[in-house]
Amino acid sequence: MAYNSEAFKKIMDDYSAKRSAAQDAAKERLDDVIEKCPEIKMIDIALAGTGVEIMEAISAGRNGIEERIERIRKKNEELQQQRADCLALLGYPSDYTFPKYDCAECKDTGYDSNARLCSCFKKQLAIETCRRSGLGRLVDIQTFDSYSTDYFSYDSDVYENMSEVFAFCKNYAETFSKNSENLMLIGDTGLGKTHLSTAIAGKVIERGFDVCYDTATNVFTSFENERFGKQNSKFATPTDRYFDCDLLIIDDLGTEATTQFTVSALYNLINTRSINEKQVILSTNLTLEEMKKKYGDRIASRLFGESIVLRFTGKDVRLQKIGIT
Length: 325
Description:
Elements: H1 5-36, H2 39-48, H3 50-59, H4 65-89, H5 119-133, H6 138-141, H7 156-174, E1 182-187, H8 193-206, E2 211-215, H9 216-227, H10 240-244, E3 247-253, H11 260-275, E4 279-284, H12 288-295, H13 297-305, E5 307-312, H14 317-321
Parallel strand pairs: 1-4, 1-5, 2-3, 3-4
Helix pairs in contact: 1-5, 2-4, 3-4, 5-8, 7-8, 12-13
C-alpha cells in the first residue's frame, strides 16, 4: 500500500508535535513537584540507575544472579512506592509527572509495540488523505451503508441490475489492489454514480491507498493552468496528483468544455496511468456513441476497452426522494 506521502508527513509531524507537548507538560509538572518535594528528585536519580545495577548484577557472573536481580527488583518497587507516597502527600496521583499521551498504545509515536503503524495513526492518516483527495465531507455521507437499492424495486430487472452494480462496487473497494481493473460508471444523472464512486474512494483510502477524486472540469482546468502558465494561482491543483495516486476517480466526465488540448490531456493521463499500472474510475452520463463524438474513436475505444463497464439504470433517485417520478 502507498500512503499519500504528504498526508503521511503531515500526520507524523502532528504526532511529533503533540508527543513533544505532552513531554514538555510532564516536565513542567515534575519541576513543580520537585520544588515542593526535593526528595522526588533523589528517588528519580536512584530509579534511573536501575539499568546500570542490572548490568552490574549480570556481569558479576551466573552464580547468585537470581538473588541479585530480585534485590534490585524489590528496591525498585520500594522506590516507586516512596515516589507515589510523596506525590500523594502533595495531592497528586502516582502518574502525575508522566506524559499524558493521546494514545496509550503508541504513546503518540504513531507505531505500536510491534513497530507497526498504530490504529490511531491510520485513522488520522485516512482522514487527512480524504481531505487531500478532494472528497471533503462527502466521504462521510456517501458510503456503501447509506446507498439503498430500494429506490429501484419498482422494476425487477432494474433492481437486479443495480443490486449487482452495488455488490460489484463494494467488492471492488474491499479487494482493491494494483491488479484491479479500471471502471466506467455509465448512466443517466441521479442514479448513484457519484455516490458509489465516493463510497469506493472512502473504503480504498481506509485500506491505506492514496486516492485522488475530482470532477472532470477541475482536472482539465488544472492541466490548462499548468500548460498556460497559471499554475501559480492559489486555485491551481498540481497535476502530479492525477498521475501519482493509486486510484484516480474522475467524476462527470463529459461535462467539461472539450478542446483539442483537453482531449490530448485525457489521453495522456489515461495512457500514462495504464503504463504505470495505476487504476482509474470514470463516471459519465455519456453513451459510447456520445463519447466517440466528443473524444474520438481512439480514446473512446481505449476507455471502454480497458475498463469494466457498469451501467446504471432506473429513474432519477433525487427526483424520487422529492416525490417526482
